[in-house]
Amino acid sequence: MKTKRQSIEKLEELVESELNIELSVYGVGKGYKALNEFLRGKRDYDSSVRNQAYRYWTFLNLLRIVPESQEFDGVSKILFCPESGLQSGAGPRFFVEPTLPTYSKKKLWKESSCFTYLQGPKEDDTIHDTPHLMVTRNNVDWLPWPPKRGIEIPNLSELQTLCAKGEYDQIAEKLGVNKIPSNLSDCYKIVRDLADTAEMDSKWEKFQDNAEYIINCKNGSLNKSDYTKILWYGIAYKRPLILVTSEQVSDRQFIDDLDKLPVDVSVVEEFTIDMDPSTCLNKLENIL
To answer: Are residues 250 and 140 part of one domain?
Structure first.
């Protein structure tokens, strides 16, 4: 019986051969470092690896079925890495852990109280969501908003004041972008284009038709935190959802909650790393 590492290595070889590309895992986060060490035989399949390995397994299987073969023309390398800028390195139409635009739970809560497992807003209700994967349409490989992972949401007035003071490095830090404005005009343009929450809402409205699927993966049984996260994705972003899990989804109340969402939700159950690649394809083809 193949080990988890051998199963992933076999699938990597299959994907690289079919698509004529090179695969690489890249990222400075703890999970990506652990996954890299595991794939190189320097770490066991422990708790720090299992979830990231499962997401990588799901990503590899989706690469075989979602993009058309011609979409890989000119692509020589695909990185399994978190989205850290406006453009993805994860191949045609894929984003890994994309930071989606902010939304206010308080604004949506009144129309969402019919859900059993939806947790209500806390005092600070402005949320940045980072699903495990997002697939886009039409070969779109860019996001028209900055990554704001773990960064407090600034207000527009504060940013404009910093521009006026010439504190351009703080502007870049607060917006989570690498480019530091070079002058006042450049600073105001970056703030105008990327900062305001209302603008972020508008950018998502314009972009959302390009988001074909928002995908979350769980290696293990789902819990209440998983339930509420999936529900908020559907309510806030209003795009089709795919939930991939290694276990069965048996909670009747959660299934009823999914049926109440205003978007299509597909659930791929008992999807495991040691599963034959052809079986994986069959499971995914049934929902895509």
So the answer is: yes
